[in-house]
Amino acid sequence: MAILIIAEHNNQSLKSETLKVVQAATAIGGDITVLVAGFNSAAAATEAAAIAGVTKVLHADNAAYEHQLAENIAALVTELGKGYSHILAAATTTGKNFLPRVAAMLDVAQISDVIAIESADTFVRPIYAGNAIATVKSADAIKVLTVRPAAFGEAKTGNNAPVENLTAVHDAGISRFVAQELTKSERPELTAARVVISGGRGMQNGENFALLNGIADKLGAAIGASRAAVDAGFVPNDMQVGQTGKIVAPELYIAVGISGAIQHLAGMKDSKVIVAINKDAEAPIFQIADYGLVADLFTVLPELEQQL
Amino acid sequence: MKILVPVKRVIDYNVKVRVKADQSGVDLANVKMALNPFCEIAVEEAVRLKEAGSATEIVVVSIGSSAVQEQLRTALALGADRALHIETDQNLDSLQVAKLLAKVVADEQPGLVILGKQAIDSDNNQTGQMLAALTGMGQGTFASKVQLADGKVQVTREIDGGLQTVELPLPAVVSTDLRLNEPRYASLPNIMKAKKKPLDVKAADSFGVSLSSNVTLLKVVPPATRQGGIKVESVAELVDKLKHEAKVI
């Protein structure tokens, strides 16, 4: 068994999703090679070499890979991937973008959003927005998987795997990067945060989301939102937690003014401890919350901030 | 320019999903079915491009049993000009769907393919990317904005942490995300008109594409249910529980 993992990084540093994919790969068993494809991304390659369980790091450094354009990354991964039994990437917007392209070029299926590895050829994944869990078995020569990071722990670090530089450049010359607009925030990323506090339609407007700031500061939390809050225009869409947004599984999830639609629950129900604050005692969110507080959020939030 | 819009018939998003007792799948008997929400957005985007004068013809295509003609008629009522039903009773995986669509692309020569980023039943999020790979086209996935100009398309994509804009030469594949547009409702006159629009039927096995997949579904089970916890009476009690019982703060 030989596993190729495509690292998730921003050229400067490795993202924690990569550690989780390595963790998933160790459940398959076999040599693990991590590919870092980027531009001026030596630091990310060095970080990848430090992940426990990694046999080798392949480092492809070229302007063609700077923005993770699917056409270029897929061409590179398809070329390299032919020598492996498994190709894995995180089920992030990057992995979901290029990996199906790789699978099609290798003429094999992709298994999306794997949440558990049963064996080297049998995998578990959610379907119907997490309302059903499917177990599938692949007979393809190369298994191509995206892995849901929230479902796996992080691999440990403390390794010094060799880094091999790749010189061949795969520039498909099809797409061109125009611009990128990343939300700037001092807070941890939603998918990596230990604590997440999210607001829903009950917040009433965007300004009221400021009530979550003080609590988030004290807890070192990321701030999220339900789809209802995003669709109402309270906050930008990259804050959305749910089946069509981010899937999170923090140690503590605080849902404020969120009723608990199925689509939201699919994005956070694997959190370790769930707190719900809602004035409607019948809200479905209370059925899955470990601690529920039936109260008006506008009185509770300032109190909570003060008592933390 | 012609736009090709592949669409899928799926369980209506308001329906509560029930897993069959024999673990063979989800119970779809007598369940309301609908056009996949992301596909609806794809049809709407194509119609808007046509209304803006950027496109001349919209062809919708769907693969499945004769039941998918219902969703093709819906798409025609929303503004598509013509429909193609690729008939099969087999359940196809994304790769087989993409291979069939690649044949349709070769026949129809569209300038743009717009499709939903994922279907809300299988949640694969693969078909658009695979179609782009098989046809050698560029891909603009998870689109929240699509702009055509000078034989190129600029696609603003929803990515983790923000937005990315890429430029692709035509023909290209665009997959839609939720906030690309808000689909219109079909008016009654348009629903009546849609019944007269052309709808061709072709057998899936007439395309010369292998429809078998190497992936087998072993079982489908309901998700583990989470036990509800307790109600606390005050903020002080909540903070105390989080500190001393759950030990998470």
Low-confidence stretches of chain A: none
What spatial form of chain A do the alpha-carbon principal axes imply?
A: globular
Helix content of chain A: 25-40%
Q: What is the percentage of strand-forming residues of chain B?
A: 25-35%
Order of helices and strands of chain A: EHEHEHEHEEEEEEEEHEHEHEEH
Strand order of the largest sheet of chain B: 9-8-7-10-6-1-4-5-11
Quick overview of this protein structure:
Chain A is an alpha/beta fold and 308 residues long. Helix content of chain A is 26%, strand content 28%. Chain A has helices spanning 16-28, 42-49, 70-81, 93-105, 210-219, 227-231, 262-268, 297-307; strands at residues 2-6, 31-38, 56-61, 86-90, 110-114, 116-119, 122-127, 132-138, 143-147, 163-166, 176-182, 195-199, 222-225, 252-256, 273-278, 291-294.
Mind explaining what this structure looks like?
The complex is a heterodimer of chains A (308) and B (249). With 308 residues, chain A is of the alpha/beta class. Chain A contains 8 helices and 16 strands. In chain A, a hairpin with a 2-residue loop joins strand 6 and strand 7 (122-127). In chain A, helix 5 packs parallel to helix 8. The relative contact order of chain A is 0.12. Chain B is globular, with a radius of gyration of 21 Å. Chain B is of the alpha/beta class and 249 residues long. In chain B, strand 4 (57-64), helix 2 and strand 5 form a beta-alpha-beta unit. At the A-B interface, helix 3, helix 4, strand 5, strand 7 and strand 8 of A face helix 3, helix 4, strand 7, strand 8 and strand 9 of B.
